[in-house]
Design a protein that fits this description.
By secondary structure, the chain is mainly beta. It has four domains: about 25-210, no CATH class; about 390-475, Sandwich (Immunoglobulin-like); about 485-635, Trefoil (Trefoil (Acidic Fibroblast Growth Factor, subunit A)); about 640-745, no CATH class. About 5% of the residues lie in helices and about 45% in strands. It has two helices and 59 strands.
Length: about 750
């Protein structure tokens, strides 16, 4: 019996372990899916209630769903993961909670469960929250009441649901297959909104963050301005809340003689200061944030000051606005009261629903009215001018844009809603402002990297009236940007007044430091990293030398004065002026970058690096310690691009080889991946190979170019460069970098 027992045990135990493992795996999977279900339900509630707006959507790497970046009304971002149609675990049949929302006849969204309304106390449960009202001073309203969000849990084989802080309620027996309510998310199809399709085919359209977040100005402490006296200046920190990607301007309306200043915002934050004249009275300042694209405006009324001294009467603040001939309305600043409309304009201007309503102008002449109102105790006079009807005039019917792209102003004289159209994708037409007769437009022309000149037509039209404007543009040349790197100087003729230099030992391991040591006799060192004759990161401790021209000589300006050699000993000192010959230096540089800097007076005159003592100082030119140094220069403007040349070849400062027809040979080969270009000069036995360009590269493409240049058995150049395709004309390609190095190749 004992052997039989062991045999039975050996068969059963592995099978039980396998079942237990399967059970644990299914439970883990169910727990994950329950969590995903609740996350999606919560997300729907937050989006419908305006708690969050979608800033971006990207697909998960495994294709199982989406990665969402959300932003709230204050610009705070959070990331969410949404899985669409998560796989369930196997199990017995039962009731699986199919959670979704549906829109009822009142326009609101309510939660549904298994295709029916989710009822609590016999009432439907609203999914979208209630909007909050704006404050009297124009401050955007606080969030309204939230909709209730159901939360689900699975205990054993039973489903339970809870609303808010309520009790868990039994829903039904559980199936072992769970999927979230979100089936798909479409971020790109419709401007301004994100389309979310639910598992019950309900389609939700929620605003993108760029169109939903309200522009605001927030002050750290408004109370500092409420007790100001005449002649005082006070300030507080401000912060601007702005939609993602929206630029804005800051302005203010203020009583006469007052000064209101914003420091330029850094990451939307800065300082607001207000200065009152010596004799003044309390008043209101209107703080204004205006989106540059015209999409939003925010006005905050700030009550300022307590009178001190004599009261100076103030004239009303004059505001001008213009409207076209059609019916429309105008917003008044938040908190406006005592609105007064002249009797003669009552037939076409009225104040209804918190706005000035403007009737359509049926006449062929414009008309004007001055509407007065108060904000606090400050009087304003708003001049409204309405255009006559049906006219379009263009100030210029031909525009020429620069090759690198340009924003061109264009004034369209019109008193109708003008429609601007063009078939060119490289032109954007936008009204710069809303005006009466002169309607300024901005014509934004993108950089022309197509390699050839182009032309397009913009049509401004209204019904049967139209005007055409032709926009032409030459092809652009790509110029690589200037970076912050310091580049090895190989020719003293490259040095210019105002250049910034690093003085580095020949090995390229140490730069001269700012620190003066040894009783001011020499300069300390700081480690640097040189790669391909370039220093990309400059330590803060390094001494940056600024060149100042002294005829054929140079002054070396550093922090605290000028570098000088002294009249005795090995000294490199700093003096406040460069009046002596000790502060005038000659500079010579050979093709390998060896630089010799010699002062015109002093006991020891050659600025050198002492490797044994690890310091920079001045030594006699015959001293063993007088080793040459290298100069690394920071370009101040983009180097002249290789596009100034026309013939194939290599253009790298002194290392230049331009193809000469009849003397040189030019060939190219293809290895299945990239082209190799070869220049040969039989007379000098020179061979230049350039490799790295391929047919898929276009203007602006970045690439790595390898250069191998031999002259007989001597290696002239063997190096790899990071470059850009700068220009193409026919079969000729220009490739270069920001330092003036470049190549011209034939495709």
């Amino acid at each position: 019996m004992l052997p039989l027992a062991f045999m039975v045990s050996g068969c059963i135990m592995p099978e039980m372990d396998e079942r237990l493992n399967d059970l644990e795996e299914r439970l883990d999977k169910l727990e994950t899916q329950v969590s995903q279900l609740n996350d999606q339900v919560s997300l729907i509630s937050q989006l419908l209630s305006g708690k969050y707006f979608i800033q971006s959507v990207s697909d998960l790497e495994d294709g199982s769903g989406y990665r969402l970046v959300l932003v709230d009304g204050n610009g705070v971002t959070v990331e969410k993961i949404v899985h669409n149609g998560a796989d369930g675990a196997d199990g017995a049949a039962g009731s699986s909670p199919q959670v979704s929302v549906a829109q009822d006849t009142d326009g609101n969204y309510y939660w549904t469960l298994n295709g029916s309304w989710l009822l609590v106390g016999g009432q439907k449960v609203r999914a979208n929250g209630l909007d909050g009202a704006d404050g009297a001073d124009g401050t955007p309203g606080k969030d309204g009441a939230d909709g209730l969000t159901p939360k689900f849990k699975l205990e054993g084989d039973k489903w339970y649901v809870k609303l808010g802080d309520g009790e868990w309620t039994y829903v039904g027996e559980a199936a072992k297959l769970i999927s979230g309510p979100i089936a798909s998310i479409d971020y790109t199809s419709k401007e301004g909104v994100v389309i979310i399709t639910l598992s019950n085919n309900t389609v939700l359209e929620v605003p993108k963050a760029s169109s939903a977040v309200k522009l605001q100005i927030l002050l750290a402490d408004e109370s500092v301005f409420q007790t100001m006296q005449g002649g005082e200046t006070r300030e507080t920190a401000y912060e601007v809340v702005a939609p993602v990607g929206v630029s804005y301007s800051l302005d203010s309306y203020k009583p006469q003689g007052w000064t209101v200043t914003y420091t330029p915002p850094v990451q939307h934050k800065g300082t607001l200061s207000i200065t009152l004249p010596a004799a003044t009275q309390p008043g209101d300042v209107l703080l204004i944030a205006q989106a540059l694209d015209g999409s939003q405006q925010f006005v905050k009324v700030l009550h300022v000051g307590q009178s001190s001294g004599a009261v100076t009467p103030e004239e009303p603040v004059v505001i001008d606005d213009t409207v076209d001939a059609g019916e429309g309305s105008l917003d008044l600043p938040a908190g406006a009261t005592n609105i007064s409309i002249p009797q003669e304009a009552a037939s076409w201007v009225s104040f209804v629903g918190g706005k000035l309503q403007i009737a359509a102008n049926t006449e062929y002449s414009s008309r004007t009215v001055v509407v007065s109102f108060m904000v606090g105790d400050k009087e304003y006079a708003l001049t409204i001018t309405q255009a006559q009807k049906d006219a379009i005039l263009i100030t210029s019917n031909a525009l020429v844009a620069k090759p690198e792209g340009e924003v061109l102003p264009l004034v369209v004289q019109a008193n109708v809603e003008v429609e601007a159209q063009t078939d060119a994708s490289w032109i954007t037409v936008e009204p710069a402002t809303k005006a009466l007769e002169d309607k300024p437009y901005t014509i934004t022309v993108a950089a022309n990297d197509s390699g050839s000149a182009r032309e397009a037509v913009i049509t401004f039209s209204y019904k049967e009236i139209s005007q055409e404007v032709t926009v032409s543009q030459e092809a652009a040349t790509v110029v690589p940007p200037v970076d912050d790197s310091y580049i090895l100087v190989t020719d003293a003729d490259d040095l210019q007044d105002g250049d910034q230099l690093l003085i580095v030992n020949k090995a390229g391991t140490y730069a001269m430091a700012q620190q003066v040591v040894g009783n001011s006799r020499y300069r300390s060192i700081v480690a640097v990293s040189v790669a391909d004759d370039v220093i990309e990161e400059v330590p803060e401790e390094a001494a940056v030398v600024t060149l100042e021209s002294d005829g054929d000589l140079w002054h070396l300006a550093v922090t605290g004065g000028y570098l000088v050699s002294m009249s005795s000993g090995n000294n490199l000192n700093t003096e406040s002026s460069a009046s002596s010959a000790n502060a005038s230096w000659s500079i010579s540089v050979d093709a390998d970058g060896n630089a010799v800097l010699v002062a015109q007076a002093g006991a020891s005159t050659q600025l050198s690096y002492n490797g044994s003592a690890q310091r920079f100082s001045c030594y006699r030119t015959t001293s063993p310690s007088a080793t040459t140094v290298c100069l690394y220069r920071k370009p101040t403007v983009p180097a002249t691009p290789v596009t100034q040349y026309t013939l194939p070849g290599i253009y790298m400062g002194s290392k230049t080889w331009e193809y000469v027809a009849g003397q040189n040979q030019y060939c190219r080969s293809y290895n299945g991946n990239a082209l190799t270009f070869v220049l040969l000069d039989p007379e000098t036995q020179s061979q230049l190979e350039i490799e790295g360009y391929s047919a898929d590269k276009t203007v602006g493409s970045e690439l790595s170019v390898s250069v191998n240049w031999r002259k007989g058995s001597a290696q002239v150049l063997s190096k790899t460069y990071s470059m850009q395709v700068l220009q193409e004309e026919g079969k000729t390609v220009w490739i270069g970098d920001s330092r003036g190095n470049g190549f011209i190749l034939k495709k």
